[in-house]
Design a protein that fits this description.
Blueprint: E1 9-15, E2 18-20, E3 26-28, E4 33-43, H1 48-55, E5 61-67, H2 70-73, E6 80-83, E7 86-96, E8 100-107
Antiparallel strand pairs: 1-4, 1-6, 2-3, 4-5, 5-8, 6-7, 7-8
């Protein structure tokens, strides 16, 4: 388990309200709902290449490790994370034992 001092970045988890249009595409129909806030340890990936890709405008991936709560266990890959003014689409969710959850997400293009 990660020490509390390493979970020092505040993140908010949101769920979008969507419906399908006549073409079967998802369309936002209302304001997103905040599901939970948590303090996370943010891991930026395995190398300089990932950070360089983000600088050049390509996608950036990060892993957010938070303490497990009932609200966070209800988060799905259809939800997203708001962190440092950007929205991050959740790509994968993994339990880390009984106390932590790991969310891997990709920053949305601006």
């Amino acid at each position: 388990m990660i020490g509390a001092g390493r979970r020092d970045r505040k993140v908010t988890f949101y769920r979008s309200v969507t419906a399908e249009n006549s073409y079967g595409e998802p369309v936002a129909t209302g304001s997103p709902t905040a599901l939970a806030q948590a303090f996370a340890m943010v891991a930026w990936g395995a190398g300089r290449e990932i950070r360089q890709a983000a600088i050049e405008g390509n996608s950036q991936t990060a892993t957010f490790i938070v303490l497990s709560t009932a609200s966070l266990r209800g988060v799905t890959t259809k939800d997203y994370i708001e962190f440092e003014g950007a929205n991050w689409d959740i790509a994968a969710i993994a339990l880390r034992g009984r106390r932590e959850i790991e969310f891997t997400a990709t920053r949305r293009a601006a």
